[in-house]
Amino acid sequence: MPAFPLNASERRALDFQRLVGRVLAPMWIPVCVGIMYFVFRWRIEGTQEARRTYTQIRHNRATPVLICANHLTMFDSCVIAWALASPWRNVADYASLPWNTPERANFASTWWKRALVWLMKCLPVQRGGDRRAVGAVLKQLIYLMGRGEAGLLFPEGGRSRTGRVNTQAVTYGIGRVVRALPGCRVVCVYLRGKAQETWTARPKSGETFRISVACFEPKSDHRGLRGSVDISGQILERLAAMEREHFDGR
Amino acid sequence: MDREEAFEKVVKILTPHVKDQTALASASDKTNILDDLKVNSARLVDVVLAFEDEFDIEIPDEDVDSVNTIGDCVKLILAKSS
Fold this sequence. Notes:
heterodimer, A: alpha/beta, Glycerol-3-phosphate (1)-acyltransferase, six-stranded mixed beta sheet, 9 helices, 6 strands, 12% strand, B: mainly alpha, Non-ribosomal Peptide Synthetase Peptidyl Carrier Protein, Chain A, 55% helix
């Protein structure tokens, strides 16, 4: 069993956040998907295969699941959640809808943004901020994933500044989460809009995305920080390989 | 290894990652690595791994959370070395 380093009040706060989001899920999840589908007119190719794969992976609830994806726009997590499960499945199987760690400056700068992301299974983090604060968010995610919730992290720690997966941008956070949860499976997701040349705030209206999904269980013989970096590196390499396949298949 | 020696080695390891070299010239225990020296947070991993190699120590993930200043680094290294 993974260690849960949160105290009782921290655990209660997360359980309450989950409960409120769960109760209101029949409203906010369809609204989010409706905005993406009808307002932004986004479409996704490959959802059938992606959803089948994700459902199979989630079938075994005993082992934690961490989704790791490339990162090009601020809407990636929403599109990924939509691509991996229909809105109705996300409502019915709320644990499959992944917890996300958005950048605080972008998504939690005002009270109403904080309220919205709180509702939508988010744990805002200040990238490059105080290490203890970042570590506290990772501990929250570990706690939730240890209870069967899916998590979503971007291994590059931010949007790909070159428009391609940067295998040099290795952080230790993802490896730390994986190592804290024995048997944790990593679902690598490569998502890219056809018109998405490089990183932007939002995909273009009418964009069509292509998604591919691969699952593996990273292992490392190293211990401590080096082990976490090794695992993060393996995940980035896998995403880079999926990116090569994406462009080869275009 | 004494504190002064550890401090000098920490500064040497940090040097290639520091964007504000003038701040490094006047570095002290209280100098914040990310805010004052403008080290990229992603590069902090490289810095801590370099500590492991240089001082032949192993640093757990959780201990990286306590690394904010040069003094934090020195304290961590001395604790692990002993």
